[in-house]
Amino acid sequence: RAKEDGRGTHRFFEREMDLQVQRRREMELDLRRAFSRSEFELHYQPLVEIASDKISGFEALLRWPHPAKGMISPAEFIPIAEEIGLIGPIGEWVLRDACNEAVKWPSEIKVAVNLSPVQFRSRNLVQVVISALANSGLAPKRLELEITESVFLAETEANLAILHQLRELGVSISLDDFGTGYSSLSYLRSFPFDKIKIDRSFVKDLAKRSECGAIVRAISGLGRSLNISTTAEGVETTEQLDWLRAEGCNEVQGFLFSGARPAAEVGQLLVRFGARASKAA
Ligand code: C2E
Ligand code: MG
Ligand code: MG
Ligand code: MG
């Protein structure tokens, strides 16, 4: 009896596993098909400088409008794209598309592009960035590349060399999601980052949990001492904004201003948040 139950449970798990494997395989096929059919889109979320209260740039965020499943989050499909070797081509497309778009914006407005640690393995990342800049005509100083600490987990020396080459092109390098992951301060010593992006998880509970406030305050202070600009992610309330301003954080990003919007709406966002809306003038 007990034996039979055990076998039943076993079969149940096998079926569950089969289903998961199947769902996963479907997702992989879908992903490849979507990429080959150019179904991905980049949406843009404003980065707002606290001092001037104006947009200083936009972060390009990948969107996958799935014909049957609706909008699929990059948090869901990027890990799969990384595993199946599709992040290289996708990442290259993201860079090219973001640069082509940004070159239409006023010249003081920057564009931030996320890089996957897997893109560092391909060894042609620098060439891809050079070519995206050259083909679009975007000035390198208008491109910000966002990386996470995971870039330092393996191949540290090789990846540092790539980061230095990128920076020599004149692009800037931001450390994204700071405070999550391993958060070793030695990363800040080993590379001259231009910007630290304070993870949303700390910003969220700024007022409610004193630890979060203390951590955000410490990171802003660290940025100031090291001459690295700080951006708070996930700012949703004026209360958070006031707090961040008082603590000397430089830039904010979040739903308080706007979520990521399609490229066609960038002009409107620029009008709404003070910057010049057209390239001319
Ligand atoms: P991230 O780079 O940290 O991007 C910020 C995420 O926070 C975005 O999620 C954005 O929509 C979300 N966000 C911004 N403001 C708020 C807010 O006020 N409240 C809340 N709740 N969320 C906010 P998204 O677009 O879902 O992207 C998730 C992650 O996927 C990104 O995190 C990034 O790591 C990755 N990702 C997105 N696009 C790309 C890409 O082109 N390439 C690579 N390699 N990764 C990407
Ligand atoms: Mg980012
Ligand atoms: Mg981030
Ligand atoms: Mg984040």
UniProtKB/TrEMBL annotation:
Domain EAL: 24-274
Name this protein carries in UniProt: PAS domain S-box-containing protein/diguanylate cyclase (GGDEF)-like protein
Species: Bradyrhizobium sacchari
First and last residues shown, out of full length: 525 to 805 of 805
